[in-house]
C-alpha cells in the first residue's frame, strides 16, 4: 500500500487527479477500521492531515467555512455558539479520542446513513464545498447524499469545507443509541429554526438509505408556525405531536442489529416532537430575555 | 527439562513491586505500576526476531460437510512456510475441557460458524491472511440446528454429533451423557412431594441472551520449538495445566516436552478456559522449526472463544397466602452450541443453584444442556447461576406482586440461613446472611432526583430527553453461587515457597501456576506470604508448568485454593525455619514466631539473615479443599458444593419510557466475603462484577441469526461505558467460613449474578412491563 502525504491543497488536488483509485484519509476513524478488518485494501492512501488549509475554520461572507479536516473536538470547543446543532451532534460522537481525530469532512466523504453530522448539516441547510484541479463547486448538502455510502463527490474531487450560515434561531440534535455514550446512531434527528425565513429545517439519520430531510414535516411546521414567529406564542402541543408523526413518515428504515424499523420510526416521532418543543421554548425565551 | 534457547520479548518476569501489606491490607499490586504506565507486556506483545505469524482459516458456515480442501494456492504464496489441516494433527484430533469432542482443526464436518479449518504460517501476518484466503474449501452446506429445545426434541434427526463424546480425565463433573444425540447433560433435582399444590402459583418463561466475556486482550501466544523436539508456549490463558494436557494429547508429546508460561493476560472471565490458538501455534512451530506468533483481532476473538450459554427457562413457583414458598418447578435449557466445553458444569450449577438462596420443601428441576450449531458456549463468570438468577428473582418479584407483598419481605421470609438445607439436601454449614444482606441494602439511603445535566439522563449527551417520559424504578435481587469446583472434582492447587536471604534481605519467592488474569492473585500471594513468614520482600515467580497445577482461575476459587496452597506451603517453610531457630537458640519452637525478617520470642530477635546464611528453605505442596461428591443422577441429592458466596444488589434506574432508554442511577451491593484478604481488590471485584451483570441486563448480547454471529465487534457488541455504570454503594460483610483459609469466601462471581436481576427488577418497576428477556432492548420497552 502506497501512502501520499501532500502538504498543500494544490498538491492534494493534483494527487487526487492523478490517483482516482486512492482512498483519502483524514482522521482515519472510518478508513482505518476498514483496513484493520480487511474490508478495505486501497492501493494508495491519500493523507490529508498535513494540508494546513483543511485544518482551519473562518467566517466568510456571513457563512462559517469549516475546513474539512477540523476535528469534532474543535467544533465543540470553538464553534459551540456559531454552529450549535453541529456541536451537539459532535458531542454524541464516539469517545474523546475519536472526537480528536474524526472530522466533518470525513463524515461526509464516507456518507454513511448513520453519520452523526448529517442531520445537523441538513437541518442547517449547509453547503459542501468540493474541489478538483478543474475548479471548485458548492453542493447543497441535501443533494450531496446519493445512496448508501455514496455521494455527489466526483472521483477527482476532494471535500474542502462545509459552509453553514450561523443560526438565526435555536437548533437541536438528538440521537438514539442503545447505550449512553460511544454508540452508533440507531436513529438521529437534527432540527433548526430559521425565523428569518419562517422555515423549520430537519434532518434524519440512520433511518433511510441516506440521510434525508423530512420535507412534509418541514412544510407542515412552516404552515403551522407562520402566525407564531412574530408573536412568539405558545406552540400547540398537537402541532409538536403532528410534526413528530410527519418526521417519522419521512423515514424508510430497516431492521438491523442496532434496532428494528418500527422502533426507529417511533423514536424519530418522539425525538422530533421533543426537539421542536425545546427549540420553540428557547425561541420564546430568547424574546423575553 | 531444557530451558528455552532464547526468551521472547514480552515474556513475563518475576514481580516484586513496591508493595507491603499482609492479609487484610489494601496491598498494592506488584504489576500495578507497569500496567498504569503501559509497560506491562500482554500476550499480544510477545516478539522474537525470526518469528512467523500464524493465522486461522475459519468456516463461513454454521453446519457443513467438507468435501475437499485444496491448500496448494496458499502454499504457492511467497513467504508462506506452512499450511496445515486436520491431517497434520499428529495426536488426538479432538480436545475439550470436560468432554473431548472439539476438533483441533475441522475433520470432515464444521459445526459452527468460525470453526478452525486450516492454519497458515508466513513471514508476515498480511501474507498469512492473504494465503489463508486462497485455500479452497469445498463445502456441502447443511441446514443448521439453532435452537436448544428443537435440538433435544429431535434427537434422532439432523444430529449435530453422531456419537458419544469421549469422557476425558479432565471431566470435572459427573457428566450424565445421553448415549447419542444432542443432549450434553440432563440434571434432575427431586425433593419432597412430586405433585405439590399451593394457594398462589406464578408461572413464567424467561430468556437470557448470549453474553460475551469481552476481555480487552484478545487471544495471543507465541510457540517456540525447542531443541528436545518439544515446544515452549507463552500464552494468555486461565489454566496452564489443563491446556498442557490437551496440547500434549493433540501433539502426541509428553508433558516434559510441552512447557507453558503464562503471558500477560488482559482479562479472561471464563473465555480463556478452552483452548484457542494454543495447539495451532505449536503445530505451526513444530512444522516450521520457527517461533510462531498468533494473535487474534477483535472480530476473530468473537469466534475464537466460547460465550455465556443463552438460556430458556420455565419456572413455576407455588406459595401459601402468607408468602411461604411451597414448591418450585423449573425447566431450564442451556444452548451449549457446537461443542461441549463447560456445558456439563454449567448444567450442574444451573440445576443445583437454580432456585436461588431460598428454602423450598418441594423442588422439581430439569436442567438440560444441548448441542446446537450456534457458537460453542462455555465458561463465563457466574455460569449457570447468572442465567437462572434472572428467572428465580423475577419469579420472586412476580410472586410478591401476586401476594401483594413487599418483594424484599418475601425474600427475607424464605431466605436461607446457616443450617438451612439447599435443594441438593446439603446443609449450609457456614454463615448465609441473606436476610442481613437485604436489610442492609434497604437501610442505605436512596439517591436523589437526577441532577439537571444531560449526562445523568437516559441517553446521556445524545440529548434525547430533558426529563420527559422519565420514570424511576427500584429493584432488589440476591444471589448465591458455589465457590470452587463441585460434584466430586479433585480440586487442588500447588504452591512452591522459598525463603532465602538475597543481598542481605530476607526474600520469599512464591511460585504457582495460578493464572493472574487481572484479578490480583499475585497481590494475594504476596500478602499471604508476608503474613505467614513475616517477610516484606515477596517475589512472585512467572506462572508456568515448572510447578504443579493450580487449577483454573475460575469459579471464584483462586484466593481460596491457591491462597490455601500458598498459606500451607508458607506454614511448612515456617515450621522448618523455626525448628532450625529452636536448635540454634535452645528455645522451644512453640515460643518462636517470625516477625519483620527475624525469629522473635521474649527477649530474642534472631535476624533471618543470620539464621539462614546462604541456605534456602523451600517447600512445595498440594492443597485441597474438603472433598465434594457427585450428586444422585435421579434426585440431584448430594454434598455437591464446598462453599457458597452470597451477594445482594439494589438498583435504581431512570427509564425514558417513551424512548425505551435506561440510565442506571445507582447500584448498591452487599456481599459476605468471609474475610477480605485485600479489601480494595474486593471492592474492585464487586464493581466489575456489577458492571458485567448490568451489561447483560441492558445491552450485552451476541446476536445470532441462523447460526451466524451478527455483531462480532465492539461497534455493535456494546459493553457499559462510564456513563452507563453508575457510582456504587458497597458494604462488605466478613462472616468467616470455618472451613476456608482465613475464613474467606470466593468473591468474583456473586456480584455478577445479583446485579443484572436487580436492574431488570428496577426497569420493571419503572415501566410496569413484565420483561421476561434480557438484555432488555428499547423495542421491549416501547412495544416496537
Supply the CATH superfamily name of the domain at 430-481 and 642-784 in chain B: Aldehyde oxidase/xanthine dehydrogenase, molybdopterin binding domain
Distance N to C terminus of chain A: 58 Å
Distance between the termini of chain B: 64 Å
Main interface: chain pair and counts: A-B, 34 and 38 residues
Level-1 CATH class name of the domain at 171-288 in chain A: Alpha Beta
CATH architecture of the domain at 171-288 in chain A: 2-Layer Sandwich
Shape of chain B: globular
CATH topology of the domain at 430-481 and 642-784 in chain B: Aldehyde Oxidoreductase, domain 4
Care to describe what's here?
The complex is a heterodimer of chains A (289) and B (784). Chain A has 289 residues and is an alpha+beta fold. Among the domains of chain A are: 1-46, Uridine Diphospho-n-acetylenolpyruvylglucosamine Reductase, domain 2 (2-Layer Sandwich), CATH 3.30.43.10; 171-288, Enolase-like, domain 1, CATH 3.30.390. Chain A is built from twelve helices and 13 strands. In chain A, strand 8 (145-147) and strand 9 (150-151) form a beta hairpin. The termini of chain A are far apart. The model of chain A has no long low-confidence stretch (mean pLDDT 96). With 784 residues, chain B is of the alpha+beta class. Chain B has a seven-stranded mixed β-sheet with strand order 3-8-1-16-13-14-15. Chain B has a six-stranded mixed β-sheet with strand order 11-20-19-18-12-35. In chain B, a hairpin with a 4-residue loop joins strand 30 and strand 31 (661-672). In chain B, helix 9 (385-403) packs parallel to helix 16 (750-767) and helix 15 packs across helix 16 (750-767). Mean pLDDT of chain B is 94; it is low at 154-159 and 164-179. At the A-B interface, strand 11 and helix 12 of A face helix 17 of B.
Amino acid at each position: 500500500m502506497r501512502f501520499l502525504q501532500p502538504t498543500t491543497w494544490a498538491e492534494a488536488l493534483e494527487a487526487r487527479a492523478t490517483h482516482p483509485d486512492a482512498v483519502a484519509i483524514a482522521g482515519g476513524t472510518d478508513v482505518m477500521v476498514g483496513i484493520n478488518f480487511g474490508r478495505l485494501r486501497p492501493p494508495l492512501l491519500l493523507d490529508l492531515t498535513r494540508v494546513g488549509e483543511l485544518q482551519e475554520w473562518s467566517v466568510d461572507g456571513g457563512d462559517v467555512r469549516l475546513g474539512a479536516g477540523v476535528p469534532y473536538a474543535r467544533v465543540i470547543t470553538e464553534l459551540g455558539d456559531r454552529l450549535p446543532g453541529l456541536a451537539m451532534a459532535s458531542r454524541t460522537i464516539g469517545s474523546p479520542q475519536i472526537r480528536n481525530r474524526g472530522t466533518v469532512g470525513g463524515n461526509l466523504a464516507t456518507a454513511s446513513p448513520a453519520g452523526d453530522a448529517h442531520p445537523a448539516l441538513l437541518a442547517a441547510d449547509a453547503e459542501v464545498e468540493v474541489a478538483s484541479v478543474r475548479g471548485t463547486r458548492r453542493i447543497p448538502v441535501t443533494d450531496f447524499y446519493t445512496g448508501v455510502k455514496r455521494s455527489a463527490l466526483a472521483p477527482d474531487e476532494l471535500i474542502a469545507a462545509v459552509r453553514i450560515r450561523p443560526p438565526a434561531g435555536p437548533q437541536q440534535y438528538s440521537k438514539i443509541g442503545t447505550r449512553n455514550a460511544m454508540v452508533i446512531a440507531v436513529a438521529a434527528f437534527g432540527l433548526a429554526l430559521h425565523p428569518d425565513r419562517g422555515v423549520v429545517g430537519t434532518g434524519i439519520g440512520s433511518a433511510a438509505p441516506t440521510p434525508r430531510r423530512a420535507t412534509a414535516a418541514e412544510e407542515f411546521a412552516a404552515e403551522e408556525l407562520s402566525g407564531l414567529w412574530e408573536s412568539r406564542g405558545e406552540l400547540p402541543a398537537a402541532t409538536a405531536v403532528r410534526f413528530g408523526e410527519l418526521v417519522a413518515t419521512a423515514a424508510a428504515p430497516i431492521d438491523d442489529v442496532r434496532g428494528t424499523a418500527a422502533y426507529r420510526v417511533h423514536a424519530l416521532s418522539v425525538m422530533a416532537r421533543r426537539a421542536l418543543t425545546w427549540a420553540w421554548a428557547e425561541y420564546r425565551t430568547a424574546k423575553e430575555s | 527439562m531444557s530451558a528455552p534457547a532464547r526468551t521472547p520479548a514480552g515474556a513475563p518476569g518475576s514481580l516484586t513491586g513496591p508493595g507491603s501489606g499482609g492479609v487484610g491490607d489494601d496491598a498494592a499490586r506488584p504489576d500495578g505500576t507497569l500496567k498504569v504506565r503501559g509497560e506491562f507486556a500482554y500476550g499480544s506483545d510477545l516478539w522474537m526476531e525470526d518469528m512467523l505469524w500464524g493465522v486461522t482459516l475459519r468456516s463461513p458456515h454454521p453446519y457443513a460437510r467438507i468435501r475437499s480442501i485444496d491448500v496448494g494456492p496458499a502454499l504457492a504464496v511467497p513467504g508462506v512456510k506452512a499450511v496445515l489441516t486436520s491431517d497434520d494433527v499428529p495426536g488426538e484430533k479432538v480436545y475439550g475441557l470436560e468432554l473431548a469432542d472439539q476438533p483441533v482443526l475441522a475433520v470432515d464436518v464444521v459445526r459452527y460458524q468460525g470453526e478452525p479449518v486450516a492454519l497458515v504460517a508466513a513471514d508476515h501476518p498480511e501474507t498469512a491472511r492473504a494465503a489463508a484466503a486462497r485455500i479452497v474449501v469445498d463445502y456441502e452446506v447443511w441446514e443448521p440446528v439453532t435452537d436448544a429445545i428443537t435440538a433435544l426434541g429431535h434427537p434422532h434427526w439432523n444430529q449435530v454429533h453422531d456419537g458419544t463424546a469421549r469422557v476425558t480425565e479432565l471431566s470435572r463433573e459427573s457428566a450424565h451423557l445421553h448415549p447419542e444425540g444432542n443432549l450434553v447433560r440432563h440434571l434432575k433435582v427431586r425433593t419432597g412431594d412430586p405433585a405439590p399444590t399451593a394457594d398462589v402459583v406464578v408461572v413464567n418463561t424467561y430468556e437470557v441472551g448470549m453474553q460475551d466475556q469481552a476481555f480487552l486482550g484478545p487471544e495471543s501466544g507465541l510457540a517456540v520449538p525447542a531443541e528436545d523436539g518439544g515446544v515452549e508456549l507463552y500464552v494468555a490463558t486461565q489454566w496452564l495445566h489443563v491446556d498442557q494436557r490437551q496440547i500434549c494429547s493433540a501433539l502426541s508429546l509428553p508433558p516434559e516436552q510441552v512447557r507453558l508460561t503464562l503471558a500477560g493476560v488482559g482479562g479472561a472471565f471464563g473465555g480463556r478456559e478452552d483452548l484457542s490458538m494454543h495447539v495451532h501455534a505449536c503445530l505451526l512451530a513444530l512444522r516450521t522449526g520457527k517461533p510462531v506468533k498468533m494473535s487474534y483481532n477483535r472480530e476473530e476473538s468473537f469466534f475464537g472463544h466460547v460465550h455465556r450459554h443463552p438460556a430458556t427457562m420455565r419456572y413455576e413457583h407455588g406459595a401459601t397466602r402468607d408468602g411461604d414458598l411451597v414448591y418450585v418447578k423449573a425447566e431450564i435449557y442451556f444452548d451449549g452450541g457446537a461443542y461441549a466445553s463447560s456445558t456439563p458444569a454449567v448444567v450442574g450449577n444451573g440445576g443445583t443453584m437454580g432456585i436461588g438462596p431460598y428454602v423450598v420443601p418441594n423442588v422439581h428441576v430439569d436442567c438440560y444442556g444441548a448441542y446446537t450449531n450456534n457458537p460453542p458456549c462455555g465458561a463465563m463468570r457466574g455460569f449457570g447461576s447468572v442465567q437462572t438468577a434472572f428467572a428465580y428473582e423475577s419469579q420472586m418479584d412476580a410472586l410478591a406482586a401476586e401476594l401483594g407483598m413487599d418483594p424484599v419481605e418475601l425474600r427475607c421470609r424464605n431466605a436461607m440461613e446457616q443450617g438451612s438445607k439447599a435443594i441438593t439436601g446439603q446443609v449450609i454449614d457456614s454463615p448465609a446472611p441473606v436476610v442481613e444482606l437485604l436489610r442492609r441494602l434497604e437501610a442505605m439511603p436512596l439517591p436523589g432526583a437526577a441532577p439537571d445535566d444531560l449526562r445523568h439522563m437516559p441517553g446521556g449527551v445524545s440529548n434525547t430527553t430533558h426529563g420527559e417520559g422519565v420514570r424511576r424504578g427500584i429493584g432488589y435481587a440476591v444471589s448465591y453461587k458455589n465457590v470452587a469446583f463441585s460434584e466430586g472434582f479433585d480440586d487442588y492447587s500447588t504452591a512452591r515457597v522459598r525463603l532465602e536471604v538475597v543481598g542481605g534481605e530476607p526474600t520469599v519467592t512464591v511460585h504457582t501456576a495460578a493464572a493472574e488474569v487481572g484479578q490480583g492473585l499475585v497481590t494475594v500471594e504476596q500478602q499471604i506470604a508476608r503474613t505467614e513468614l513475616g517477610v516484606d520482600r515477596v517475589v512472585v515467580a512467572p506462572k508456568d508448568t515448572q510447578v504443579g497445577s493450580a487449577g483454573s482461575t475460575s469459579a471464584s476459587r483462586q484466593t481460596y485454593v491457591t491462597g490455601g496452597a500458598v498459606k500451607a506451603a508458607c506454614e511448612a517453610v515456617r515450621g522448618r525455619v523455626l525448628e532450625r531457630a529452636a536448635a540454634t537458640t535452645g528455645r522451644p519452637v512453640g515460643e518462636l514466631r517470625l516477625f519483620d525478617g527475624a525469629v522473635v520470642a521474649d527477649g530474642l530477635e534472631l535476624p533471618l539473615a543470620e539464621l539462614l546464611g546462604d541456605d534456602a528453605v523451600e517447600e512445595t505442596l498440594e492443597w485441597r479443599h474438603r472433598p465434594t461428591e457427585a450428586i444422585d443422577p435421579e434426585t440431584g441429592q448430594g454434598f455437591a458444593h464446598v462453599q457458597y458466596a452470597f451477594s445482594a444488589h439494589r438498583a435504581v434506574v431512570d427509564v425514558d419510557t417513551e424512548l425505551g432508554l435506561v440510565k442506571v442511577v445507582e447500584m448498591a451491593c452487599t456481599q459476605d466475603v468471609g474475610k477480605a484478604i485485600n479489601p480494595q481488590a474486593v471492592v474492585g471485584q464487586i464493581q466489575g462484577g456489577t458492571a458485567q451483570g448490568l451489561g447483560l441486563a441492558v445491552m450485552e448480547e451476541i446476536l445470532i441469526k441462523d447460526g451466524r454471529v451478527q455483531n462480532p465487534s465492539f461497534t455493535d457488541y456494546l459493553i457499559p461505558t462510564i456513563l452507563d455504570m453508575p457510582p456504587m454503594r458497597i458494604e462488605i460483610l466478613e462472616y468467616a467460613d470455618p472451613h476456608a483459609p482465613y475464613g474467606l469466601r470466593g468473591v468474583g462471581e456473586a456480584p455478577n449474578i445479583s446485579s443484572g436481576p436487580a436492574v431488570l427488577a428496577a426497569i420493571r418497576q419503572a415501566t410496569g412491563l413484565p420483561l421476561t428477556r434480557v438484555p432488555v432492548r428499547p423495542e421491549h420497552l416501547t412495544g416496537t
